[in-house]
Amino acid sequence: MGILLSRIRRQIELNGPMSVAEYMALCLLDPEHGYYTNAEPFGVGGDFTTAPEISQLFGEIIGAWLINAWHALGKPEPFTLAEAGPGRGTLMRDILRTAAIDPAFKNAANPTLIEASQKLRTNQAETLATEAARTVWLDDFDQLPEQALLLVTNEFFDALPIRQFIHHKGRWMERCIGLNDHEALRWQVGTQRITAQELPRGATENEEEGAITEIAPARESVMAKIANHVAKHGGAAINIDYGHAKSGLGDTLQAMQKHEFVDPLIAPGQVDLTSHVDFEALTRVAMLEGAYAFPIKTQGDFLIQCGLLERAGRLGAGKSVKVQDQITADVQRLAGDGDKDMGNLFKVFCVTQKSSTALPPFGS
Ligand code: SAH
Predict the structure, then answer these.
(1) How confident is the model at residue 45 (pLDDT cuts 50, 70, 90)?
(2) For residue range 162-193, what is the model confidence (pLDDT) as tens digits?
(3) What is the pLDDT of residue 1?
(4) Pocket flag, ligand 1, residue 55 (CB < 6 Å)
(5) Nearest to 163 by CA among 208, 206, 218
(6) For residue 68, what is the DSSP state?
(7) 156 lines ligand 1 (CB under 6 A)
(8) Which of 152, 164, 268, 320 lies 20 to 30 Å from 24 when distance is taken between CA atoms?
(9) Angle at 96 between CA 151 and CA 133, to 5 degrees
C-alpha cells in the first residue's frame, strides 16, 4: 500500500511537478504497482462495470456487427479479429461464441488481443477457455500482421493518458501534480507554457482564469496506427467509449473506486483513472492517415439499430419473470438515456478504409 505514492513523491521532489500524462501512465500501468497490473477492477466486487460485463447481449450485438462488416468488406481471408484493452476477456469470448453462426467468418479470423497487463492476460486466457489456444497476445498495434483488420475496443481509449492545460494569468500552462506542505499530492500550475498550436480545437487564447482543457497524444498515436493499418490493409475498427463529439474546454479526468467517483490524487495505483474521449480529435487523426471515420453514434442508437430489442426478446423467451426482468434492466442500462444508463454518454466511433463501404448502421 502506498508504494507508488512514495515513488511519485520522490520523483516530484527530484524533478518538480509531474504532468497528468506521466501521473496517469504510472498509476495505470506501472509494471509493479499500476492499477491494471495489480487490481481486480471489474464487476460488482470491483471498481466499475463495463458493458460486456453487464450482459452477453452487448458482445452478441458486436459479434453480429463484425460478421456483417466482414461480409460487407468482401470476406478478406485470413483476417485479424482483434480487441485492444480486453479487461477480463468477456467481450471477445461473447464475440467468438456468436461467430459460431458463421463458420467461414470464424475460420478466417485470427483472434488477437492487445493487452499491456500480464495479470489481465492470464484472466483473459481463462475466460476464453478453449479459444485461448488459437488467440495471439500482442503488446502494441505495430505488431499487427499485414492483413485486413477487424478491431473492437470498449473503454480502452479512456484509459490512455491525457495532458491537461490550465489557463493561468492570461496564459495556458501545463496542469501538473505537486506536493503540499504535508507531502500530500496537490494540483499545481506547471512551468511549461503551452503554445497555440498545442491547444485542442474549441480552446482559445482568451479563456477565464482556471479554465482547463485536455489533449491526448497517446490516444492520437494509437488511433493513427489503427487508421493507418485499416487504410493500408483494409478492415474496420469499432471503438466504444464515453466522450464528446466536439473538442472543447473542461476537466474530464475521473477516478473510480467501488463504483463511486473519488479524488484522482487520493490513492495512486489503487483506483481507476480515466477521462472522456475527444472523438473530434480522433476523427481528424483517422482522416489524416487516409482512413474514413463515420460520424459518431450514441451507444443507445447503435445497439437499438443493430437489433438489441429483438435479441433481448429472444434471450428472454420462455425464461422466468425474474430472468426477463433482469434482461429488461440490462437493456435499459446499456441503451437507455437515464442518469445511470450508458445509452447517451457512450459513443460508437467507426473507422474504415473507404467512405463508400456502408457498414450498417453506419453510412446506411
Ligand atoms: N474492454 C474491457 C476493459 C476496459 S479497462 C471491458 O470493457 O470490460 C482498460 C483495458 O485496457 C484493460 O484491459 C487495461 O489493462 C488495458 N490497457 C490500458 N492501457 C493499455 C495500453 N497502453 N496498451 C494495451 N492495453 C492497455
Answers:
(1) confident
(2) 999 999 999 999 999 999 999 999 999 999 89
(3) 52
(4) no
(5) 218
(6) H
(7) yes
(8) 152
(9) 95
Determine contact, residues 54/308, Cβ cutoff 8 Å. Answer: no
64 CA to middle of ligand 1, Å? 23
Distance 34 CA to ligand 1 centre (A): 12
Alpha helix segments (H runs only) across 77-194: 90-98, 103-108, 118-128
Q: CA distances (Å), 276 to each of 77, 159, 219, in order?
A: 35, 9, 11
Atom of ligand 1 nearest to the CA of 158: 9
Query: Which three cell numbers, joined as nine digits, stand for 70?
Result: 466482414
Our measurement of the distance from residue 280's CA atom to the centroid of its chain's CA atoms, rounded to an integer in Å, reads: 15
> Rounded to an integer, what distance in angstroms lies between the CA atom of residue 312 and that of residue 328?
8
Q: List 150's β-bridge partners, or say none.
A: 81, 236
Distance between first and last Cα of the chain: 52
Give the count of alpha carbons within 13 A of 212, CB side only: 15
pTM above 0.90, yes or no: yes
For a mutational test of ligand 1's pocket, the pick from 30, 35, 36, 143, i.e. the residue with the most ligand atoms closer than 8 A to its C-beta, is 36
Q: Are 301 and 245 in contact (CB under 8 A)?
A: no
Distance, CA 156 to ligand 1 centroid (Å)?
5
Could you report the per-residue pLDDT of 111-145, keeping only the tens digit for each? 999 999 999 999 999 999 999 999 999 999 999 99
Length, in residues, of the chain = 364
How remote is the CA of residue 210 from the centroid of ligand 1, in Å? 31
Residue 284: C-alpha distances to residues 96, 103, 334, 360 (Å) = 32, 36, 28, 22
Q: Cβ(117) to ligand 1 under 6 A?
A: yes
